[in-house]
Amino acid sequence: MSTETFDQGLMDYSQREPRLPDPVDEANDGLDISLDERLAMYEMQQELRQFEKRAYDLFMENLVKGTSHLSLGMEAVATGFGRVLREGDYSFATYRGHAHTLARGAPMGPVMAELLGRENGILGGKGGSMHLTSVEHGMMGSYAIIGAHLCIANGAAWSSQMRGTDAVTVVFFGDGTTNIGAFHEAVNFAAVWDLPILFVCENNLYMEYTPIDLTTAVEHPAADRAAAYGLERIVVDGNDADDVYEMARRVVAKARSGGGPSLVEAVTYRHGGHSRADPAKYRPVDEVEAWLDRDPIPMYHQRLLRLGVPEGDLARISQDVARRVDEATEFAKSGAPPGEDVLMTDVWADGGSSWRN
Q1: pLDDT in tens, 110-129
Q2: In this structure, are residues 300 and 80 in contact, taking their beta carbons and an 8 Å threshold?
Q3: How many Cα atoms occupy the beta-carbon half-sphere of 130 within 13 Å?
Q4: What values do phi and psi take at 215, rounded to 5?
Q5: Which pTM value belongs to this model?
Q6: CA 261 to chain CA centroid, nearest Å
Q7: 199 phi, psi to nearest 5 deg
Q8: So what's the architecture of 35-330 in CATH?
Q9: Cβ-count burial of 341 within 10 angstroms (0-12 exposed, 13-18 middle, 19+ buried)?
Q10: pLDDT per residue over 122-149, tens digit each?
């Protein structure tokens, strides 16, 4: 394909009918969520947003090793589930996993250092942005192969079932994953075995550069297929942390009590491109502007003001998060690149077949 043909294809995408968000539901102000919990969710969303903004800045300074996939604009999904899950539960994410790692309690400093490829990183600088893992915090990995982690997550859920624990597994994936075989195999397996697992599709409307609705026969690529596996159709506003939190409480409790799996589709939108190499010019301008107006953090900020939280309290939360992000950045920069003793472990030096025997 020539550059001209490819560019024309992007222009055609940008002229298509925009997919606009639903209006804000102010009725969610009255949900049965304590003010303390809501303040904690506001703080978490600020942490995820400010951390990723800093990660972007460091990438532009050529300090982040490899590429990175940010979830700016999608913080409400990680926040809602992160506040519901507890110690002993398992989380699996895609390469867009910074937010989910932090939401499970992994410290910002070592996570930032991992992005920079430093020895004080959470994986010693060897995993980088696309493979964040912290078993200590129940974050069982970020996976670069689309859909591969769904079947692995089933294994974690099956282990909980076999051991008789009440641990719940949550596996996050993008809308494009719903069109590959691993998705259907994993959901079917979980339904047949009544596994304590939640499949959470973060539908940001684009599978890399292609609108999901151009390649999928149903409007909601995850939720509209749930019935094929005997599961409830669940669509949630992925830009509203309260909406996600309420749904997470319900499906987590169901799985924890032996009620089996759920398939949740959280409709959201990434503010930037697929990765740092993507300027995202294929998206209709009206669509981008409408979704930016539905930014989850300003929306949540306004909700807290309506609920009586003083502006000064919210400003202090944001400022405290900014301070911690600065500290995390300095911690990350202070680390040295991993030495040979680290780099040469957990790898095969012999390219031959002898290691298989």
Answers
A1: 999 999 999 999 999 999 99
A2: no
A3: 12
A4: -125, 5
A5: 0.92
A6: 19
A7: -95, 120
A8: 3-Layer(aba) Sandwich (3.40)
A9: exposed
A10: 999 999 999 999 999 999 999 999 999 9
Q: Compute the distance between CA of residue 208 and CA of residue 217 in angstroms, rounded to an integer.
A: 18
The tokens 């102010």 sit on which residue? 26
